[in-house]
Amino acid sequence: YDNLLLNPNKQSINEIGYMEHYSHYGSAYFIHEDVNQKLIDSVYETISSYSNTFDCRVAISQLPTHGFAVRIFAYRTQIIEKILGTIQSYIAENIYDRKLDFLRKY
User: Fold this and answer.
1) Cα 88 to the chain's mean position, in Å?
2) Is there a contact between 59 and 70 (Cβ–Cβ < 8 Å)?
3) 99, 92 in Cβ contact below 8 A?
4) What is the CA radius of gyration of the chain?
5) What is the pLDDT of residue 60?
6) First and final CA of the chain: distance in angstroms?
7) What pTM value is reported for the model?
8) Could you give the domains of the chain?
9) Are 58 and 83 in contact (CB under 8 A)?
């Protein structure tokens, strides 16, 4: 359970502990019986270069159950989509042994 409520009219979200000057936030969860610390480390290694390339912050946390949460701060939605797409592709290939199907309609 992740509860994030930001109200810029009542809170200064530019301070440490909020969004630290980033304008966009994205998160995702993956729950599967094969998730362990080794997989989480491997996923993080796959996306770690994005922090420098796109000036964003990425964190992955292991969940109490077999799963992990990903949180991303960035300046553009497209950066968050790129990172989450990379993670989704990695999971599809390494957990489900298939290529990722692109389903987004523009």
Assistant:
1) 10
2) yes
3) yes
4) 15
5) 96
6) 30
7) 0.80
8) 24-94 (3.30.70.600)
9) yes
